[in-house]
Design a protein that fits this description.
49% of the residues lie in helices and 21% in strands. By secondary structure, the chain is α+β, with helices and mostly antiparallel strands. It folds into two domains: 174 residues, GAF domain (Beta-Lactamase), CATH 3.30.450.40; 157 residues, Histidine kinase-like ATPase, C-terminal domain (Heat Shock Protein 90), CATH 3.30.565. The strands form three sheets. A six-stranded antiparallel beta sheet has the order 3-2-1-6-5-4, with helices on both faces. A five-stranded mixed beta sheet has the order 8-10-11-13-12. The protein has a two-stranded antiparallel ribbon with strand order 7-9. α2 runs antiparallel to α6. 32% of the residues are buried. The chain binds adenosine-5'-diphosphate and magnesium ion. Adenosine-5'-diphosphate binds next to α9, α11 and α12.
């Protein structure tokens, strides 16, 4: 009898390690930080059989720990939770670079229920391990509440530790990749307007230049400097969003007011092209970063104007919905009857610098607006989608959290 039990135990351990190797391979091939972090916490939960998991990363400037992702914390609550350097269980793990096992938090003096109170979650047990690269600890990976109630096993501790060391390297790689990729693209994009400006100044220096030519050149210089300044500020926005350094400043606000206010900003631009803009929205209270959501809306609205024909129309609407996790969200849609976007371009639409050649040819832009929009929306736990047909028009719709009473 005991033979059978032992061999099935051994089978389990082998299957477990095989799964760990599989997961490590997946982690190393993921260079997008957001999806990497998601994979890490879902692997942590699966491998140690726990209710929830979270990742905190060390803020280099202060040494504090900040929640990057947590399966039991809503995105909009995450910002408010910062664990000061060295404090609490996670702080201890980050400082000492060693795991901590707490099978019953009520018996643990350094445990504080501050986070639980913020998110209405009941923590019973914690297994916290350092995220350690070759040279330093960059954060903490936590499993919370062992399923089944029993304590953490030796196997859980070893497994989470192994996962954490793989995860730390993958996180470092993703961060480095982001930076290099970004700097290369940025330099490339800045070159074009800079070359135009340089050529213009050379022309302006010619004494034989007729006055009407001078005027044209100055107009070009003006629009190229505008483009440069838009590029640099959008670059910075996107760099902050991609590195996870952009913080959401959430508050409750009326969606209808925000839509009206955003339409007001672009109404002149729409009038110039004879485009009618209408708003259809009940008064729904959102809980989100108002400034950033306005930025998303303004980009969708200016796109709907820029890539529209004379005399077109735009409809901006908002309605309450329940998202896939059963949470109350608001769906905001910007619909136009402009040129539309062909199927083969649609899947690339939210990539940075992507512009459709035949529409982009005659309008100014950076190709960053939709990439920024996607980051902002996903940062709120929402989604942005596109439906479009060439010659008919496009609808961009995104979701943001609704305020709960
Ligand atoms: N409403 C729309 N209708 C048609 N094409 C669009 C629309 N919105 C965006 N596009 C296409 O998507 C590209 C990327 O948009 P965006 O990221 O906002 O960059 P930009 O507007 O600076 O070019 C645009 O260049 C355009 O080709
Ligand atoms: Mg745009």
């Amino acid at each position: 009898m005991s033979m059978t039990v032992n061999s099935s135990d051994a089978d389990q351990v082998i299957a477990h390690y095989q799964r760990l190797i599989e997961i490590s391979q997946q982690l190393n091939s993921t260079l997008d930080l957001g999806s990497l972090l998601k994979k890490i916490i879902s692997a942590a939960r699966e491998l140690t059989n726990t209710e929830a998991a979270s990742i905190m990363l060390i803020e280099p400037s202060t040494g504090d720990l900040r929640f990057e992702i947590a399966s039991n914390i809503a995105v909009q609550d995450m910002d408010e939770i910062i664990i000061p350097k060295g404090s609490g269980i996670a702080g201890w793990v980050a400082q000492h670079g060693e795991p901590r096992v707490i099978n019953d938090v009520t018996q643990e003096p350094s445990w504080s229920n501050r986070v639980d109170d913020t998110i209405e979650f009941h923590t019973r047990s914690i297994l916290a391990v350092p995220l350690r690269t070759h040279t330093k600890v960059i954060g903490v990976l936590e499993g919370i509440n062992k399923i089944g109630g029993g304590g953490w096993t030796e196997n859980d501790i070893n497994t989470l530790n192994t996962l954490a060391s793989q995860a730390a390297i993958a996180i470092e790689n993703a961060r480095l990749f982001q930076q290099n990729d970004f700097i290369a693209e940025m330099v490339h994009e800045l070159r074009t307007p800079l070359a135009a400006l340089k050529a213009s100044t050379v022309l302006l220096l010619r004494p034989d230049l007729p006055d009407n030519r001078r005027h044209d050149i100055i107009t070009t210089m003006h629009s190229e400097t505008e483009r440069l300044s838009r590029l640099t500020s959008e670059f910075l926005d996107l760099a902050r969003l991609e590195s996870g350094r952009a913080r959401l400043d959430t508050s409750r606000f009326d969606t209808n007011k925000l839509l009206e206010e955003s339409v007001d900003v672009v109404v002149q631009q729409a009038n110039d092209k004879n485009i009618a803009v209408s708003v259809q929205c009940d008064s729904i209270t959102a809980n989100a970063d108002r400034g950033k959501i306005k930025q998303v809306l303004l980009n969708l609205l200016t796109n709907a104007i820029k890539y529209n024909r004379e005399g077109g129309w735009i409809l901006v609407s908002a309605k309450p919905i329940i998202n896939h996790e059963n949470l109350p969200y608001i769906q905001i849609a910007v619909q136009d009857n402009g040129y539309g976007i062909a199927k083969e371009h649609q899947k690339h639409m939210f990539e940075k610098f992507y512009r459709v050649a035949d529409t982009a040819g005659f309008t100014q832009g950076t190709g960053l607006g939709l990439a920024i929009a996607r980051h902002i929306v996903e940062g709120h736990g929402g989604q942005i989608i596109l439906e479009s047909e060439v010659g008919v028009g496009s609808t961009f719709a995104f979701t943001i959290p609704q305020a709960v009473r």
